[in-house]
Backbone:
């Protein structure tokens, strides 16, 4: 069995052996992750999954050194390993987030990019991102590493070519920071294959093209997002800007933990460690480095997440069930829809598209009776069971089931149902930059899936039961139109209790949509 087939069989995505020659430096891991994404994106690989795959110990350049006590890596080694992982993540996510922008920049320095192997172009992509957008990484180190990676794969001649190209990028000076730099005729896609047609595949207005290149949005996606905001310049600009910024780090504090209140207070009282925003590509207005999200959540601005709280590492608090990583937008939607009412009312809760269970478990921590989680992935359900053990919560019933074919009888569920449906994810482009590569046709097909899920779950409600329909996208077809369809169902009467959508001018919160409905007849 090939390494790629073995990777898929184990639930991962196999990496070509030759790319492992690049080693385990942060720059190398970022390049390897992007190449892995190239190979497997159509099969569902995400940049997060790719980084997890290439970051396995077998892919590291060398194992951690033994500590002075001979029992394993020292705390210093572990700290450096954590910093390396963080830098690799920032390089991979950032290079993907601004892929179109970087392609435009590199296209000014490479006359015939399609003649270069794609992995070599990925080396250039990651290095250009580091040179232009990561001030804390020395330019000489970026150049040296990029040249070394190219030489490992293709020999010294290609290493010299990479050096020359990156020197040309440096000679551009501050020009790539100006929007005027991105005006003009669209060149061939720097990262596309030779079989692909050059230029945009949609009718992208010139003024929109400049902004889309600057913020790293593909043409079709830029046109779609602009249409969602009716082309209003201020709204479109805010949406584009938010998609290109580094996301904030969200943490949920376990309300059921004895130390939860103390940890929350400590997090909210931290002084800023960096200017906010730290490396915002848009130069947006500064704001507080840490914000409260709902009653039990916090969000840290990029560069301001602490390594320790109350003298202990965040990882320690997480392993003990006091902290859980959860995006601020996901926490905010629960608060805005008032779903904590379900806990106060003693309603049973069913998380019908549970994923890894974040929203259902958040309600359970705050007193809700989470009775059932269903999902189409056995691995995700197993993760929920582990999370319950970590958080000290009773494990709900777990069922492998498609929400379009519910395991609950029609008209029998008197509690609350969370329907966090599969969506196009256009509200979380900063956190999920690989969505930029998703064809719009695939996004449009999701609307049918959402309709089937929402109608099937609504049919399970008894009179008085409630359904929370949630997405992390901004498309009217996936949000308002689905809500309108539910309210017109002929076999039952639903009323809308509350609707919330992330405000277009919110400076950092991810784009979420939610509606809370109650069956009244």
Residues:
């Amino acid at each position: 069995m090939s390494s790629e087939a073995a990777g898929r069989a184990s639930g991962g995505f196999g990496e070509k052996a030759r790319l492992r020659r690049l080693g385990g430096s942060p720059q190398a891991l970022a390049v390897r992750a992007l190449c892995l994404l190239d190979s497997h994106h159509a099969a569902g690989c995400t940049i997060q999954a790719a980084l997890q795959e290439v970051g396995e110990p077998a892919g590291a350049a060398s194992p951690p050194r033994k500590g002075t006590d001979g029992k394993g890596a020292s705390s210093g080694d572990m700290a450096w390993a954590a910093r390396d992982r963080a830098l690799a993540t920032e390089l991979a996510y950032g290079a993907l987030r601004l892929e179109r922008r970087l392609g435009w920049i590199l296209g000014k320095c490479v006359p015939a990019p399609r003649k270069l192997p794609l992995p070599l172009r990925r080396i250039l992509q990651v290095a250009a991102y580091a040179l232009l957008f990561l001030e804390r990484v020395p330019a000489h180190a970026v150049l040296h590493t990029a040249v070394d990676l190219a030489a490992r794969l293709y020999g010294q001649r290609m290493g010299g070519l990479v050096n020359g190209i990156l020197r040309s990028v440096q000679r551009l000076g501050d020009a790539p920071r100006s929007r005027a730099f991105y005006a003009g005729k669209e060149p061939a896609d720097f990262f596309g294959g030779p079989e692909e047609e050059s230029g945009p595949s949609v009718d992208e207005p010139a003024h929109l093209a400049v902004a889309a290149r600057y913020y790293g949005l593909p043409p079709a996606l830029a046109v779609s997002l602009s249409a969602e905001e009716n082309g209003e310049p201020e709204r479109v600009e805010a949406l584009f800007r938010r998609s290109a910024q580094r996301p904030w780090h969200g943490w949920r504090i376990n309300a059921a933990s004895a130390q939860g209140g103390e940890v929350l207070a400590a997090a909210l009282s931290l002084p800023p460690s960096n200017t906010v925003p730290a490396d915002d590509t848009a130069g947006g207005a500064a704001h507080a480095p840490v914000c409260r999200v709902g009653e039990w959540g916090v969000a840290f601005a990029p560069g301001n997440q602490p390594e320790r709280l109350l003298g202990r590492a965040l990882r320690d608090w997480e392993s003990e069930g006091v902290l859980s990583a959860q995006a601020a937008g996901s926490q905010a939607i629960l608060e805005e829809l008032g779903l904590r009412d379900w806990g106060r009312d003693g309603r049973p809760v069913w998380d019908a598209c549970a994923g890894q269970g974040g929203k259902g478990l958040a309600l359970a921590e705050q007193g809700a009776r989470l009775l059932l989680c269903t999902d189409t992935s056995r691995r995700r359900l197993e993760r929920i069971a582990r999370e319950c053990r970590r958080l000290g919560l009773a494990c709900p019933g777990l069922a492998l089931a498609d929400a379009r074919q519910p395991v609950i009888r029609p008209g029998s569920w008197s509690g609350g149902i969370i329907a966090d449906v599969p969506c196009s994810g256009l509200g979380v482009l900063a956190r999920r930059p690989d969505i930029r590569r998703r064809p719009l046709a695939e996004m449009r097909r999701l609307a049918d899936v959402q309709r089937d899920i929402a109608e099937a779950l609504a049919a399970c409600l008894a009179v008085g039961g409630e359904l929370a329909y949630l997405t992390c996208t901004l498309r009217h077809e996936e949000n308002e139109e689905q809500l309108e369809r539910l309210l017109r169902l002929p076999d039952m009467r639903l009323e809308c209790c509350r609707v919330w959508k992330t405000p277009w001018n919110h400076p950092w919160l991810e784009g979420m949509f939610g509606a809370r409905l109650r069956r009244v007849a």
